[in-house]
Amino acid sequence: MTLRIKVLVILILICLGGGYLGYNWVNDNLRPQFLRIMEDGMVDHAFVLARIIESSLPDKGHQQAIRHLSFGKVLARSRNQQIRARIYEWEKRRLNFRVYVTDARGIVRMDSEHGNAVGQDYSRWNDVYLALRGKYGARSSREQNSRGKNVNAMYVGLPLYKKDAKGHKKVIGVLTLSKSKASLTGWAERAQAKLWQGVLLGALGLFLLAWFATQLALQPIFRLTQYARAITAGRRVPPPPISSDEIGTLTQSFIEMKESLWQRQDIESFVTQLTHELKSPISAIQGAAELLEDPEMPEKTRARFMQNIKEQTRRMNDIVQRLLTLVSLEQKEELDKKEDIELDPWLKDLRGRFTTQAHKKNITLLATRDDDTPTHLTGERFLLEQAIANLLQNSFNFTPKDGHITLHIDRSPEEQRLNIWVTDTGPGIPDYAIDRVLERFYSLEHPDTDSKGTGLGLPFVKQVALLHGGDFSIQNGPETGTIAHFWLPQTDAKRT
Known about the structure:
The mean pLDDT is 78. The chain is rod-shaped. The strands form 4 sheets. Strands 4-3-7-6-5 form a 5-stranded antiparallel sheet. With 496 residues, the chain is of the alpha+beta class. Helices cover 50% and strands 20% of the residues. It folds into 3 domains: 38-190, 2-Layer Sandwich (Beta-Lactamase), CATH 3.30.450.20; 275-331; 339-494, Histidine kinase-like ATPase, C-terminal domain (Heat Shock Protein 90), CATH 3.30.565.10.
């Protein structure tokens, strides 16, 4: 499982767990808030009703008057009437509260619920019990309503007062207002639905924000990983940006470690390969020098050995210079200087460099490009010219007289590539050498001179291609000759 997937799973679990806990916490506190609001309104209404009933009772005989309150009939008729009240998105169609009144002993004397409880002793119910003692009474009970359904209801009870003969307030009964909790169901369900929506949207927003922040935090690690893979694959890519945090320190340490290892490997490789390649010319020079010590050697032979020493010295110098150039190129991670190169003059110049060689061997040299190719490319002119010149020189070394060499440029739109092809009609690459021609110092004998090159030209071309973000390959043609393919990313080219 990748780090990106692990982070994604952790964020999903955190958001889902946080959303679930948040929903439960809010939901657990939501219903009590609704009940508090409901009870507050019930107390207001009960207080007003209690005062109305008190004002309708006579100063004397009020216990008898409680039994014959006309207020109950009014409430009963009101409960049977339909109303249409639009309260936000919910429509209220009937009254859903109950009122009952008890006397001073807690016996129900009036009940708006069709008189169902009249005559019953409610003195032990909390609302009546406390109200008869001059306190606020409330309870929540599960009872059967007039339609035979068991419902949970809230009850608030307030004492009814009248003054006695001495002018003292005396509790003469209780007024209780009740309301079914089912009336809250619609509101609670809508609130819960909106709460769910809010939790889901909040969790989604939190997830997206956390994912975005995590990607920003992990991006340097991903870039460093891609850089490490590119280095492992042998590609020359610029190092990722170095930030000022711990990841930046890690990136800097990795780059320093890579450079240290490369320098050590380059030195070892340079010394080993240079020693191996210089053995042959040194041996030739040493042998010629020993023979030159013979005083009786003919002058003509002496001159030939002297020329041989000069050629081997030149070859040694060429090997050292080319190897230094190749090692320097391999240590680069990006181009020193990018230039805008116009292709037509560039092709003409490359062709002009080899006109003399083509004339000597009667070789036809063509330099062309497709009409739909870009007219310019971007790169380091010196390196590109050296690379393509190496390919052309390689073709001239192996192409016989009256042969053909073609330098051609086209593009691959589907792969976003600009292709540079060098083809010839030479003998091609032997099967035993096809997999080794890109190795350092590996070279084949030139047919014209029976001598070998330095074996550094094609590795140099490969490094130039990699440094430009492309690649290089060489293979035999379908019938004869070789096909060298040097390509650059299409993004490095532009059309006019």
